[in-house]
UniProtKB/TrEMBL annotation:
Keywords: Membrane, Transmembrane, Transmembrane helix. This is DUF3667 domain-containing protein. Pfam families: DUF3667. InterPro entries: DUF3667 (IPR022134). The chain crosses the membrane at residues 95-112, 256-275, 282-302, 314-331, 343-371. The keyword Cell membrane does not apply. It comes from Christiangramia sabulilitoris.
Amino acid sequence: MLEKYLKRDNLYEYRGTTCLNCQLPLEKSDHFCPNCGQKNSTKKLNFGDFFVEFFSGMFSYDSRFQRTIRVMLFSPGKISKDYVNGKRMRYANPFRFYLSASIIFFLISGISDKFEGAQFVNPETGIREGVAAIKQDSLLKNELNEIPALKKNNIQMDSLLNKIGPSEPEAKKTYKDIYLSQKELDTINIVARTAKKLNIFYRYYKETNTINPDDAITELEYENTGWNKWLYQKAMRYDLFDNNPQLFIDYFVNKLPFIIFFYLPVFALFIWLLYIRRSFNYMEHLIFAFHVQTTLFILYIIGYTIDYFLQSEWGYTLANFVFVFYLYKSMRNFYEQSRVKTILKFIILNIIFFTLATIATIIALIISFSIF
């Protein structure tokens, strides 16, 4: 009976009796290996099979991707509840999906110049710098040029400002004015000593432009240790960021998806403590936290896209308002508590979130500067 079926069903022609991947014995009726999941086939790979497998895998993921976004946006809390209840094959992995959404968000948000309005004050001159400052100064000059008294006497603000000129800056302190010897530094605590060294190194670099840490430390007559070399390198980096603040901002923003990725497990710990009397374990709270944060990124992606094409600001604002309502509904549906308890815990969680976010940002800035 089986031989007769094999003659007319060519699918069985390439079925093996052993899994080529894990060597598990198989039956001819086994389409996939029950141990490792590999397809039971001895057929040599050809060009057509390669593209069929590639596109089937892509559309399979795309189906889960679309379902995940749809449920995540329009059924707050459902995707987390389904996932912890074992319905996982229909959705994308929450951790990988978070990374994908966060990276896309930061790429899209980077298209618009978010820091166009930033104004930086040059510590050397005290003059505002940046795109917004230039625009404001230009508008101010145009307005002053329209003053009747100036127009009547044909006086241009540019020439007037050039004649007046900036006031003479006060005499600046050099590194010699704040210099402490190695012996003097050893008498103060490590925190004050490190801050003092950084200040001395920074001023020394500004005045001498010495790039080699060994030469600088020798000239300053400090111990030639790895710690002092590292501090001098950080002083040079600080000068670079001081003159080009956008450089550090871009560097830090690029690291934010991964910073938040490691921040969320800490936040999930506080969620677990807040719901400690509920029957959820830590991992289930963590999945909920990742799903909620991913939703925020998706809403921001939609908001930034709207603002980019319509040249408006309401898309981003609307995303924030929608997320506040979404977070409440997610907590209500996932944890299934009363409205009063949910609102109270919603307020507490937001306070915890912003407190932890502030601490995490400070730590991340310090670490980012240290490893740059």
